[in-house]
Write a structure and sequence with these properties.
The complex is a heterotrimer of chains A (102), B (238) and C (306). With 102 residues, chain A is α+β, with helices and mostly antiparallel strands. Chain A has one domain (2-100): 2-Layer Sandwich (Ribosomal Protein S5, domain 2). Chain A is built from 2 helices and 5 strands, in the order E-E-E-E-H-E-H. Chain A has a 5-stranded mixed sheet, covered by helices on one side. In chain A, helix 1 (56-70) runs parallel beside helix 2. The longest helix of chain A is centred in the middle third of the chain and has 15 residues, at 56-70. The model of chain A has no long low-confidence stretch (mean pLDDT 96). Chain B is α/β, with parallel strands linked by helices. Chain B has a domain at 3-137 and 188-205: 2-enoyl-CoA Hydratase, Chain A, domain 1 (Alpha-Beta Complex), CATH 3.90.226.10. In chain B, the strands form 2 sheets. Chain B has a 7-stranded mixed sheet with strand order 1-2-3-4-5-7-9, with helices on both faces. In chain B, strands 6-8 form a two-stranded parallel ribbon. In chain B, helix 2 (48-64) packs parallel to helix 4. The longest helix of chain B is centred in the first third of the chain and has 17 residues, at 48-64. The model of chain C has no long low-confidence stretch (mean pLDDT 94). In chain C, strand 5 (146-150), helix 4 and strand 6 form a beta-alpha-beta unit. In chain C, 40% of the residues lie in helices and 12% in strands. Chain C contains 11 helices and 7 strands. Chain C has helices spanning 18-25, 87-103, 122-141, 159-166, 183-190, 200-207, 209-214, 226-237, 245-262, 268-275, 288-296; strands at residues 32-34, 59-66, 69-76, 107-112, 146-150, 169-173, 220-222. Chain C has a domain at 18-178 and 218-242: Alpha-Beta Complex (2-enoyl-CoA Hydratase, Chain A, domain 1). The chains are: A alpha+beta (102), B alpha/beta (238), C alpha/beta (306). At the B-C interface, helix 2, helix 3, helix 4, helix 5 and helix 6 of B face helix 2, helix 3, helix 4, helix 5 and helix 9 of C.
Chain lengths: 102, 238, 306
Amino acid sequence: MEKLSFRHATPGPLPGRKSQAITGVVASGNLEILLERVLEPTVCTVEIETPIRGYGDVWEAVIADFVARARPGGLRITINDGGARPDTVSLRLLQGARLMEV
Amino acid sequence: MTLAEILDSLFPDGHTVAVADGIVSGDGPFRGGRLAVIGVDGGTPLGIEGACRLSGLVLDVVRRGGGTPILVAVDSGSQRMSRRDELLGLNEYLAHLAKTLLLADAQGHATIGLVYGHSAAGAFIATALATRVLAGLPGANPTVMDLPSVARVTKLPLDRLEAMAKDTPVFAPGLDNMVQTGAVHAVLDPGQPLAPQIAALMDDRSDADIRDRLGAERGGRPVAGDIADRVMREAGLG
Amino acid sequence: MIDRLADPTSASWYEASARARIDGLLDAGGFREFVGPEQRRMSPHLPLFDLPRAFDDGMVVGEGILDGRPVLVAAQEGRFMGGAFGEVHGAKLVGLLRAARQRKPAAVLILFDTGGVRLQEANAGETAIAEVMRAIAEVRALGVPVIGLIGGRAGAYGGGGLIAGTCSRLAVSESGRISVSGPEVIETNRGAEEFDSRDRALVWRTMGGKHRRLTGGADAFADDTVAAFRAAALNLIGRAPAFDLATLEAEQARLEQRLARFGDCREATEIWSRLGVNDPAAVPATTASAFDALLSGLGETTHDAR
């Protein structure tokens, strides 16, 4: 397994009050994402465990794009990857952020 | 040890235990009363007829009452793998057999498993693993699945699995690993008479299911007991 | 904390996740999970095999309300490792059942979706299944119904089939298969002439929901919707058999009778015909309501002998 970890500065807290959400499933080509509102509102962290090695650059780009779009300030995001494609990862991350916005 | 050797050691004064189509049944004198013996011999796979016969024998003991203890002696195959067994509901027959043993235990009949040969998968769950205390004899080989089959399913090379099996009791076949997991409580000494060893295990038996505790103590199942306790705590208990 | 269903009335049970099934099954808003994903109690063993882990190890357990009454509930996620029993996965169900002994809820609901034992943790999974079966017997003996709901993509195979047979009552859908050896396992061991696992119609006839319901291996047949499983669960809770000698004597008689009556059958359709089904070939295509009408004419498929 390869472990990746990213930390981004965010302009402020993600709207909403939900403290925690989980979406997706660890299956081939899929992933699960746990989102927890536990950090300072100016920070978002993303930790990833993936069985597919050597795609750190792709993850970095996908996460940076997500942070820019969703501004997920205050979230600790943890991903168990089952070998999901980048578009699936993006989709699930945005889904997860929406779940937290209620 | 063979079944005949086990029975000679258990019942030096004789017994009525016999084997038909791989199914063991009978009894012998034990501590002033009788010890009922059921089981599977000769590596026989357990199918619907055998399971039904065994559950009927257990219910006979429970119906007669009197707290007669039951020894479940096991040298079986896996569950019998056939279209007919599944068509007729093998899961019900195996579950029913396990339930009769669990009921016997709840009604005061000590249930002791003794695995002295092979056993695997559903046959193991329905017989030996449904007893209150499970003992093994050296040379016994209980498995969930043999390593070549594990290699096929997990798509891992057999030599790597064999190397991992040496220090990973959680998945490797064999008696020692089942002891470390807590599934097998004790290994008996074949050089000593079996009756007192079985009697001591019966007297020692706990009302609680201690297999996860044993697994944690012995290192073969490091987290199961803790997880179960934690669920109970979060349910507002314990 | 849970996947939501857009519309539980029509949402497919088969397609839903373990969390979505719980959400649609229970009264709204009342579910509280035990050892939730944020605790990250994941498998300690899967990393050895370089396999990804899940936060809940494929088993969601907790408490909730069903039609106003408190229940404990466990749901397997069939898409993670085929819903198979590993150490953590199994221990969560064991803990829930032990809690039920003291809490005495209106029922324990087990939402099966499992291929059996997780081979990477085989000894732990196998032992957990034995612990679950003992705990179910103890819970039932205290008068708490344990209801199994089977309609997921992984079915209830291997040790899952044995646990199902230990429950007080079972509801099953068309796609909910109950069996010990799966079709692929039988084919691998005995050859395609014994069981052609690619013949899906054969799989359904031999171990599918309708066959199990017709032969008394399950107590209710549900449409593949979350609402139908909720209705079935509510119906079954009220008529759970005791766990005692009388019940097991009755089950012994029922299983002996099945052997005597159908032991020479090779095909499910022969069994259905002997049961009194006029057009066995039409059964697989029958709708749930027509199937229920058919069942009401066949008394012996409904029983208290489990």
